């Protein structure tokens, strides 16, 4: 089955491919590796590429996309590219310049989707994580509704085809949805989502508002000390997931990805390994039964791999609410 045809309609009329290629890499990974992996992903059939200003790799990804356009493998309109507004640029006057900075790095005219990366605002600064003399993050208080209005203007200007949010909880989504004079609803909310954190309540809420849930960390997480404890469980070694993979003669990663697609979730798959990149596209070749889906639902333990505690002091820290 051609993955290019597998897409979901967003509430603004645009379409998002349901399987995306994630590009976040540990700072120690050479940038060239991210670019090469993006080229491999496009050659293999991925058309949805997810990145962010914070990932510090948009030059390499832009180069990879443009090289595959030059090779005649894709046209610009075949690619669905997502970027994200970092927390130091939440002040309304900084939103468009931040997007323009990403576009300059990418050497593209527009992004298909621009997201507010997180509801936590930080002090405007050149460094990604501005800290005080004690090494504590310096926060900012910004009205996210004003940030959203600046996002709407980016859509009006054609710099972003669609706009959405990431890491928002229900309350924060409602704040945008109930904003007086709202012109565009967020098309999606990109959040951590996998069988150990299936986000069922947030998913139901998003569906009720015609907002697509996009899952990152869908295969568990890269085991990075910066964000997580090395003693955390390895999702892809889960015995239930492994037994189901054996039953379907697929990899545990494919079971985890297929689970999301059948719930109506757009899923990001991140691997820089060519074999795994190609393998992940097999997600369209099989189906899980409703019994399988129930078993996978049963793995939920509201377990978060990515929970930056350094953000917990901010009033918009999203994970204090149930969902």
Notes on the structure:
The chain has one domain (3-223, 231-303): TIM Barrel, CATH 3.20.20.100. The mean pLDDT is 94. By secondary structure, the chain is an alpha/beta fold. 33% of the residues lie in helices and 14% in strands. The chain contains ten helices and ten strands. The strands form two sheets. It has an eight-stranded parallel barrel with strand order 3-4-5-6-7-8-9-10, surrounded by four helices. A two-stranded antiparallel ribbon has the order 1-2. The relative contact order is 0.14.
- Mean pLDDT equals 94
Looking at the overall shape, the CATH architecture is Alpha-Beta Barrel
CATH-defined fold name: TIM Barrel
Category by helix and strand content: alpha/beta
- Number of helical regions: 10
Strand content: 5-15%
Rounded Rg:
19 Å
- Poorly predicted regions: none
Keywords: NADP, Oxidoreductase
Organism: Galeopterus variegatus
Protein name: Aldo-keto reductase family 1 member C3 homolog
Family: Belongs to the aldo/keto reductase family.
What descriptive keywords fit this protein?
TIM Barrel; two-stranded antiparallel ribbon; 8-stranded parallel β-barrel; alpha/beta; 323 residues; 14% strand; 33% helix; 10 strands
Give a short summary of the structure.
The protein is of the alpha/beta class and 323 residues long. It is built from 10 helices and 10 strands. The strands form 2 sheets. An 8-stranded parallel beta barrel has the order 3-4-5-6-7-8-9-10, surrounded by 4 helices.
